[in-house]
Design a protein that fits this description.
single chain, alpha/beta, Rossmann fold, 4-stranded parallel sheet, two-stranded antiparallel ribbon, 4 helices, 6 strands, about 30% helix, globular
């Protein structure tokens, strides 16, 4: 019998966390597979690598909407991608076109982060991705504040 995860209905705001001084109060979001649904793009490229193609997939509107809520809670947004630095201009254009909020942009490397939204960490394809994020923030709040 699986135990249900006990979650607090209160959403954790940035000021509730005693965040380490050397890290921005940012939640990191990946581009490919998280903000950008690349399934059609992969077919279009017909086996060619995504990295360096300067194209991006369809925007994941539920993640983008959630990012605005994360900002409302007082967190900053760090966007990162393993794409080549030569794709910076294309990525910035894509982010602006789809009204993706962000404070930091890390290209070809991962930013320093405590919480990461990625198709491999917090499953952004699940409908409950925001609940998973909130669960991690609750756990972080309890751990950092010694509760």
């Amino acid at each position: 019998m699986r135990k249900k995860r006990k979650t607090n209905k209160t959403h954790i705001k940035a000021e509730m966390l005693d965040w380490p001084d050397h890290l921005p109060r940012a939640i990191a979001f990946d581009v490919d597979g998280t903000l950008s649904d690349n399934r059609k793009l992969v077919r279009k490229l017909n086996g060619k690598p995504i990295r360096g193609c300067k194209l991006f997939g369809e925007p994941n509107h539920k993640i983008i909407k959630g990012m605005y809520y994360v900002k409302k809670l007082g967190f900053e947004i760090a966007i990162f991608t393993a794409r080549a630095k030569s794709e910076t201009k294309s990525l910035k254009h894509w982010l602006k076109k789809h009204q993706v909020p962000y404070d930091y942009l890390w290209i070809d490397q991962k930013p320093p982060f405590i919480v990461l939204v990625d198709d491999r960490v917090i499953d952004s394809k699940k409908k409950s991705w925001f609940k998973d994020l909130q669960y991690k923030l609750n756990a972080l709040h309890l751990t950092i504040n010694g509760e």
